[in-house]
Design a protein that fits this description.
The complex is a heterodimer of chains A (159) and B (604). Chain A has 159 residues and is of the alpha+beta class. Chain A is 28% helix and 23% strand. In chain A, the strands form 4 sheets. Chain A has a two-stranded antiparallel sheet. Chain B has 604 residues and is an alpha+beta fold. Chain B has 3 domains: 197 residues, Aldehyde Ferredoxin Oxidoreductase,  A, domain 1 (4-Layer Sandwich); 170 residues, Aldehyde Ferredoxin Oxidoreductase Protein, subunit A, domain 2 (Orthogonal Bundle), CATH 1.10.569.10; 145 residues, Aldehyde Ferredoxin Oxidoreductase Protein, subunit A, domain 3 (Orthogonal Bundle), CATH 1.10.599.10. The chains are: A alpha+beta (159), B alpha+beta (604).
């Protein structure tokens, strides 16, 4: 069974631990600018929403890549990027509807979530479980449970 | 350098000159950063006797070696200057993103000097630094300023700014960061306003590096686990915020009420963290790298006090609440929003309104002074209305903005002001917490709980529980907390990490981040060095041991009811011991021997 990165904005505190963990895992330094996951905050409304690559099945970044540097890796069930094949044309950046693929000028490379090769550090360092790495078919379980809990409470009240 | 970036940015607003300087490794080693580094720079560059609002005063934004890393709750940075409210050295710690962002931009600290001819803001994008016209931002609230400035610069920029209160040089003014994080107390907002500096805006794309990623990772993970396992640092603060303390202090008989006339509040629960969580909380919020999440995103639906933003935390809920005998959480929260928007310190604001209510009820002032408002204890509407009036200097608000000391003095009764060194005491009654009283009296920035958090041992039992009504041994504990806090404020950590972490854990984190070995003893000694340097600054600014005291009400009027009934603060039993243990003489002057041991010398 394959896994996916599940995001719960309702739990997110806007602490950026995921971004710090991401840059530290990949580059051994703390640099929000090169994180592959991004947290967007609306301070006055008290809400933050993390976004990252969803590892699409029909991935636009793969379809537009002229050299197959960006490729679907069925063995790992993720979208991989091969630096040796990349010509730096930024077509993937243009194509991605989520803004999850960017070209980093300072290091001349593509920055895109690679799920830390199967154990995402953003998930490990999220202090409030706003990020989970879960089996795909069970991904919505936590969200269903919230709804079910509300219903349970209601039924208990009316009984 | 590792941990540190190794550079300071200096901007002279009088000349427009911008320069980049090296941070010397020796200074970094001796003062770490944040409050310590800022105090070091102040002691070298500023004559302590100057007028805080003079162009010669420095306004320093300083991050610590851990700021910008993933050490748990390492978001903190400090504004260091000579305070407009107190005339003492001021160091205001704030969380948020600003400190980390300053480091990503390539600087450990920003030193602002001089005074711009007209309102300006500073825009820092890595190496590119601009002083820009702020005419269109002047007069705007802090959220308006933040939003507009991001449109003019970068939507992800970190914005540190003043509101109308700072512009109007109100001594109670603070500096707001990313809308909801405050660098408060001591009148730092007025100093920023005196420089005609509306905001500092930073976007950094660089990195903070550590010498050994594996080593840092293990120290960081260990610290995060310890913090997570602590009932307060791990879960309590996230669930209920700091406001959880309302009921705890009330039950201990240490919750100052009605301008410290009493120390318990019958309806305290209505304004406590549990009620807040049930009624107004949307979700917990955290600063960068935070695992504690004490921030409160809240919303008030009550049409009279409608609003949205962050807060209140404990001090705010108390100052605008029980201290004014107000138990309407909607009103308190609304007043908190207004303080944030106008850029006013919430403790100073609440306590000054409480002082005015005390003066009013004792007939010292009348409706003729208060613009016709019956400023009685419990008048929530009046309390809320006074915030805006204070910020813009309208009517009675002009006098409130001076802070409670100058207000009460103006009407000939300074004894109604619950201040130390002209700064309002926070939410722990020094008659019920004897050691906290000693901490207030000796604090280098006037009445303040976050110089030495004696509540930890006197009430919460962290790491041990002492008798809060006893004076024995309190001097030694005060010194430990004051030195530890000065070190924490200098390394870039949040003070709340002490709910789980000790000096040994923090020293290990600093060592792992910088590659410079700090033992626990080194770490605490750095704090002691900072504390003594602050003291030297204040002595040259004209303060003496006589200023290490408490309001007469704390020393002479016993608490009338509750668990601390009959007690006054017995400062005289503790202060001589405190001086002796500090290695200071009977007048509170550090001895040459103690200074030599700390590698300090008296200021010229």
């Amino acid at each position: 069974m394959t896994k996916m990165l599940m995001i719960y904005p309702d739990r997110c505190t806007g602490c950026h631990n995921c971004e710090l963990a991401c840059s530290f895992f990949h580059d051994g330094e703390f640099r929000l600018h090169t994180s592959r996951i991004h947290v967007h905050t609306w301070e006055m409304e008290g809400i933050s929403v993390p976004t990252a690559c969803g590892q699409c099945e029909d991935a636009p970044c793969v379809m537009v890549c002229p050299t197959s540097a960006m490729h679907n890796d069925p063995a790992k069930d993720w979208i991989g990027w091969d630096s040796a094949k990349c010509i730096g044309c930024r077509m993937c950046t243009l194509a991605c509807p989520f803004g999850a693929v960017v070209y980093d000028v300072s290091s001349r490379r593509i920055l895109k979530c690679d799920l830390c090769d199967g154990a995402p550090d953003c998930v490990a360092f999220c202090p409030v479980d706003a990020l989970e790495y879960v089996d795909e078919t069970d991904a919505a379980r936590a969200r269903r449970k919230v709804v079910a809990t509300e219903l349970k409470r209601t039924y208990e009240e009316v009984r | 350098m590792y941990g540190w970036i190794g550079f300071l940015l200096r901007i002279n607003l009088s000349t427009g000159n911008v320069s980049k300087e090296n941070l010397s490794p020796e200074v970094a080693r001796s003062f770490m950063g944040g409050r310590g580094l800022g105090t070091y720079l102040m002691s070298r560059e500023v004559s302590p006797a100057i007028d805080p609002l003079a162009p010669e005063n420095r306004f320093i934004f300083a991050a610590g070696p851990l700021s910008g890393t993933n050490a748990p709750s390492s978001s903190h940075w400090n504004i260091v200057t000579k305070g407009a409210l107190t005339g003492t050295i001021a160091s205001s710690s704030s969380g948020g993103m600003f400190g980390a962002m300053l480091k990503y931009a390539g600087y450990d600290a920003l030193v602002v000097e001089g005074r711009a001819e007209r309102p300006v803001y500073i825009w820092i994008k890595d190496d590119k630094v601009e002083i820009r016209d702020a005419a269109q931002l002047w007069g705007q609230t802090t959220p308006e300023t933040t939003e507009k400035i991001r449109k003019l610069t970068d939507e992800e920029a970190s914005v540190s700014c003043i509101g109308p209160a700072g512009e109007n040089l109100v001594p109670l003014a603070n500096v707001m960061n990313e809308c909801n994080r405050a660098a408060g107390r001591s009148g730092v907002g007025a100093v920023m306003g005196s420089k005609n500096l509306k905001a500092v805006v930073v976007r950094g794309t660089g990195a903070v590096r550590v010498p050994d990623a594996g080593g840092f990772r293990s120290a960081m993970v260990k610290a995060k686990e310890k913090l997570k396992a602590h009932p307060v640092g791990g879960t309590g603060l996230r669930l209920y915020g700091t406001d959880v303390l309302i009921n705890i202090l009330n039950e201990s008989g240490g919750l100052p009420t009605r301008n410290f006339q009493e120390s318990s509040f019958p309806t305290a629960d209505k304004v406590g963290g549990e009620s807040l969580a049930k009624r107004l909380l949307i979700r917990a919020r955290g600063c960068i790298a935070c695992t504690i999440s004490c921030g409160r995103a809240t919303k008030v639906m009550n049409p009279e006090f409608k609003g949205q933003g962050e807060g209140p935390e404990y001090e705010t809920a108390w100052a605008l609440g029980p201290d004014c005998a107000v138990d309407d959480l909607d009103a308190i929260t609304k007043a908190n929003y207004l303080c944030n928007e106008y850029g006013i310190d919430t403790i100073g604001m609440g306590s000054t309104v409480a002082c005015a209510m005390d003066l009013f009820e004792h007939g010292v002032i009348t409706t003729e002074d208060t613009d016709g408002v019956a400023l009685t204890f419990g008048n929530a509407r009046a309390m809320v209305d006074m915030v805006r009036k204070t910020a813009v200097g309208e009517g009675f608000g002009k006098k409130l903005g001076l802070g409670s000391y100058r207000l009460a003095e103006h009407f000939g009764h300074p004894e109604y002001s619950m201040t130390v060194k002209k700064q309002e005491m926070p939410a722990y009654d020094p008659r019920a917490l004897q050691g906290m009283g000693l901490n207030y009296a000796t604090s280098n920035r006037g009445g303040c709980h976050v110089r030495g958090y004696m509540t930890a041992v006197e009430i919460l039992g962290n790491p041990v529980k002492l008798d809060n009504l006893a004076t024995e041994g309190k001097a030694q504990w005060d010194i430990i907390f004051q030195d530890l806090t000065a070190a924490i404020d200098s390394c870039g950590m949040c003070l709340f990490t002490t709910f789980g972490l000790g000096g040994d854990d923090l020293a290990e984190l600093v060592s792992a981040a910088t590659g410079v070995k700090f033992t626990t003893e080194d770490f605490l000694k750095t704090g002691e060095r900072v504390w003594n340097l602050e003291r030297l600054f204040n002595l040259k600014a004209g303060f003496t041991g006589k200023d290490d005291t408490l309001p007469q009400r704390m020393l002479k009027t016993p608490i009338s009811a509750g668990p601390a009934k009959g007690h006054v603060n017995r400062l005289a039993e503790m202060l001589p011991e405190y001086y002796a243990l500090r290695g200071w003489d009977a007048d509170g002057v550090p001895s040459p021997e103690r200074l030599a041991a700390l590698a300090l010398s008296p200021l010229p």
